[in-house]
Amino acid sequence: MFAELGQYQFEVLAAYGATILLIGGIVALSAASSAAALRKLNELRSLEKRNE
Amino acid sequence: MSVWEFANPARFVRIVGRILAPTALLSASLLAVGLVWGFFFTPPDYVQGSAVKILFVHVPSALMAINAWIMMLAASLIWLVRRHRVSVLAAKSAAPVGAVMTLAAMVTGGIWGQPMWGTWWAWEPRLTSFLILFLFYLGYIALWHEVDDKERAADLTSVLCMVGSVFAFLSRYAVNFWQQGLHQGASLSLDRDTNVHNAYYVPLLLCMAGFALLFVTLVLLRTRTEIRKQHSAAIAARINADVR
User: Cβ–Cβ of A18/B115 closer than 8 Å?
Assistant: First the structure.
């Protein structure tokens, strides 16, 4: 079954929490900038087509 | 087919489109299994108690902090020698991910150090070289933002990357070079008979593989984003030229 966290449980939770926050942050930022770049590229492509 | 054909941006974007979802899924699975196993199903250490479980986030993030810079060094050298744009964009994309891994390693190290060493931070060789590596990451990212001529920015950041590599290697080998530090030696090593206890070995390997794959996934995603941004800039320039 689940091993006891016992002493230092706050430290363990803080380390896991900090890592998950940092990694989650860079994943979210990367995904958002990827979506924004694709949206802008598609807009410019359609604008260029309209101009032709 | 030559490996350099992957440096073609259009081909790179096509390949990334195919492999991104599987690598992301595999990375998430490895991390989920490794972290849950490490957190819930490993026993406390007889000396460190449950604080030993910080191992599963600290070691992989420190490993990737150094390896990200080594990857950036390789990509920068390819740019300087062969002028493949995708390689320098991959280095640029890896920098924020490496910086986050370095920060995670320092934060989790501090949280671990407080109960074990009695201090959050010490000016000892490994910790100090890690801090300098983090500052190099910030400098590298800032240099990309500050130089408008992208060709020049690529050259300057590549040279900065070569200089910073000294601290990436120092971070890795500081414990071996200077014995006076607080930090222990490597937790895992291929050339040693004994490593961490078997109870921690497999979940630690899973976490390390998960972090490595997460890094690959993020670098692929961010490099594709950079290529798309350059493509957008080229189309915008064509539209502006037509309007004039």
Answer: no
Contact (CB, 8 A) for B187 and B196: yes
pLDDT in tens, B59-94: 999 999 999 999 999 999 999 999 999 999 999 999
Instruction: Give CA–CA dist B208/B167, Å, rounded.
Output: 22
Measured between CB atoms, does B197 come within 8 Å of chain A? no
Distance between CA atoms of B164 and B99, rounded to whole angstroms?
13
| pLDDT (tens digit per residue) in B175-227 | 666 666 666 666 666 566 656 777 888 999 999 999 999 999 999 999 999 99
Mutate to test the interface with A, among B53, B215, B218, B243 (most CBs of A within 10 A): B53
A42 Cβ under 8 Å from any chain B Cβ: no
Using the Cβ of A16 and the Cβ atoms of chain B, whether some distance falls under 8 Å is answered with: yes
Kindly state whether A13 is in contact with chain B, defined as any CB-CB distance less than 8 angstroms: no
Q: Do A27 and B43 touch (CB under 8 A)?
A: no
Is the Cβ of B119 closer than 8 Å to some Cβ of chain A?
Answer: no
DSSP string, chain B: --GGGGGSHHHHHHHHHHHHHHHHHHHHHHHHHHHHHHHHSSPPBTTTBGGGGGHHHHHHHHHHHHHHHHHHHHHHHHHHHH--HHHHHHHHHHHHHHHHHHHHHHHHHHHHHHHHHS-S----HHHHHHHHHHHHHHHHHHHHHH-SSHHHHHHHHHHHHHHHHHHHHHHHHHHHH-TTSSS---S--TT-S--S-HHHHHHHHHHHHHHHHHHHHHHHHHHHHHHHHHHHHHHHHHHHHHH-
Beta carbons of A33 and B61 less than 8 Å apart: no
